[in-house]
Amino acid sequence: MKFSTYIAKRFMLGGKGAGASRFTGWIAIIGMAIGCFALIISIAVLNGFELQVADKIIGFEGDLRISKIKSGMDQDVYNYLKSDNNVSQIEPFMERKGVILTSNNNVRMVSFKAVSFEHINNFYNLGLDSIILNGNIPQIFLGTLLAERLQVEVGDNIKIMSPIDSPIQIGLPRILNAEVAGIFQIDVLDYDDRIVFIPLKYGKQLFLRKKSVDGYDTRLVNRNKVDTLKEEMHAHFGLNARIESWEDIHQGLFDAMRMERIGAIFVLSLIVLVAAFNLTSTLVLVTYQKIREIGILRTLGASANVIKTIIIKQGILIGGIGAVVGLLLSIGIVVLQNYYGFLPLPQDIYAFSKLPMVLSVWDVILVPFIAFLLIILSSYIAAKRAMLIEPKEAVHLEK
Amino acid sequence: MILKAKNIYKSYKNGVKNLPVLTDLSISVDKQETITIMGPSGSGKSTLLHILGTLDKPDSGSVIINQTDVSSVSENKLALLRSREIGFIFQFHHLLPEFTAFENVLIPTQIIGNTDDKIKYAEELFDYIGLRERKEHYPSQLSGGERLRVAVLRALINNPSIIFADEPTGNLDVDNAKKLLQLFKNISEDFGQSLIITTHNEEVASIGERQFILDHGVLNSRE
Predict the structure, then answer these.
(1) Does A19 touch chain B (CB under 8 A)?
(2) Between the CA of residue A305 and those of A326, A333, A377, A388, what are the distances in Å?
(3) Which of A164, A245, B37, B214 is deepest in the core (most CB within 10 A)?
(4) Parallel, antiparallel, or unpaired: how do β-strands B3-14 and B17-29 relate?
(5) What is the pLDDT of residue B199?
(6) Which of B53, B94, B113 has its CB closest to that of A296?
(7) Burial of B72 (0-12, 13-18, 19+ CB in 10 A)
(8) CB within 8 Å: A305 and B80
(9) Interface check B159 vs A, CB under 8 A
(10) Are A368 and A272 in contact (CB under 8 A)?
(11) Segment holding A389, helix H or strand E
(12) What pLDDT does B177 receive?
């Protein structure tokens, strides 16, 4: 064992006869543990929420959307997607702003999304147990919030229309009678209040302005390669189609969540910083309690740099214990939460039944790295003080 | 020659005035030589010992230890020189309370990284002072005399060229002072070290092959 480590371990928390420095040392350990614990748990929760929201969005919208396809090119786009091995599902869609009318005269402006109903539950993850489709009448799927506002239930009859597709300048647009076939609950963004799925063939009847599909939602075999496909399609179709990943479509939302995470890391790092200040005061206290011993070590041949190293190692030991305890506790909580979900969330408020917690390797590296930097900095400040101790003065102190 | 100090001048600031402590002081120490320095309190004995032991710097003059001019070496080299060439014994034992007597003795070897080679030697040293059975005791479990004898072993462990003892018996009763004195007498014979002892005690001073009196910053031979 190196001399500096040997001494640092024995001098830790003031060694023999330490009173105040042992107490403040424990406070420093607890502070560092709380700081690291809070930082990791917060990051885990923010990660968890982000991933859950992303999963819901991807589940509802697919991995890559091709829209605003130049007239006459939709088949080219479809063929391109069909030929790509990474594309597992392709769903053509039409999308319009429209109006729903109920029998009790409730009216809502909504976004109609006309898709093939054969794969609707499978592709758009509506979470509906079973769907019985009746091909003779337009059936629709709408969100819980919209159903509440319209006061409709499954099986109710409603009217749908798309005013902007009115075939003539005056008079009423085409109106279709439809039946509520299912009510979904996504709990993300305003999907439950805005989106109404209608069958593609009725969409073509209703959306008269354009006969071809508006675009394609796709799912990929390997989601991580979404950017590769996007770039390839950009290169191939240029401005003839808009190609967006789920992340592009909701860039603002995910940017906000990332900013929130950076903000949380910054603010919670302040707890670690305060713990590090506490560590500095502990080390300074230990240094002054050990002033005679430090002086003796200097007379025995330990250089000022060795003394500096001893104090820094003491700081690493004290701060490190706190950081490791905080780290292990928080990782334990995250693991237990993922296995047992002992921290529930009210599902009527949140989209999830339990507090989501996810940690990446990067997070588990980042937090100790922040803690370690602050520990080194605070220990260095104390160590610089210790280097000023003159052995000739220290050895004259009697205990 | 182990140590040569030439024209040492040292003063301390007292307000705006400079108070000289050592004036144009020169001394040399041969191998295996024991030198004692007497002087009243405040005469500068400790200051002289600190300067000769490289713990302090003179305002002017030079100190040469084993052909090394200590004024021309870096702080790190000075620390290395202290660990290899110099041993210190203080009036207060200054053992580290967190370490056993045996560990205390081995600390200087830890500094230069040769502990493994010195463990057997340390045990022999404990036998030498008759404290083998007390070596695993902490300083708080030892008597004043025992602590000081352990401190002597700590000064000896790296086989330094010279040992400085600053009023070593000042805090001991008569019996323990006699035991320590006997130990000092044996050191230069048995271990070949040079020894510089500052003291108030006539009996301690008498063991010096050369004896000096430090008075008003000037070192005079004792008649």
Answers:
(1) no
(2) 31, 41, 16, 11
(3) B37
(4) antiparallel
(5) 87
(6) B94
(7) exposed
(8) no
(9) no
(10) no
(11) none
(12) 78
Q: Does B99 touch chain A (CB under 8 A)?
A: yes
Q: Which domains does chain B have, with CATH numbers?
A: 3-221 (3.40.50.300)
Whether A300 and B82 lie within 8 Å, measured CB to CB: yes
Q: Is B73 on the interface with A (CB under 8 A)?
A: no
Looking at the predicted complex, does its ipTM rise above 0.85? yes
Residue recorded with tokens 């309370």: B97
| pLDDT tens-digit readout, A315-374 | 898 889 999 999 999 999 999 999 988 888 877 677 677 888 998 888 888 888 988 998
Residue B118 main-chain phi, psi, to 5 deg: -105, -5
Closest CA to A190 of A225, A233, A142, A153: A142
pLDDT single digits (tens) A10-35? 877 655 555 566 777 788 888 889 98
Please tell me the distance in Å from B223's CA to the nearest CA on chain A.
31
Q: Minimal Cα–Cα distance from A392 to chain B, Å?
A: 6
3-state class of A360 per DSSP? coil
* Six-digit token string for B53: 């032991």
Which chain A residues are closer than 8 Å to B138 by Cβ? Answer: 16
Provide the CB-side half-sphere exposure for A135 (13 A, CA): 3
Tokens 């099986």 found at: A155
- Considering only CB atoms, A301 lies closest to which of B82, B90, B92, namely B82
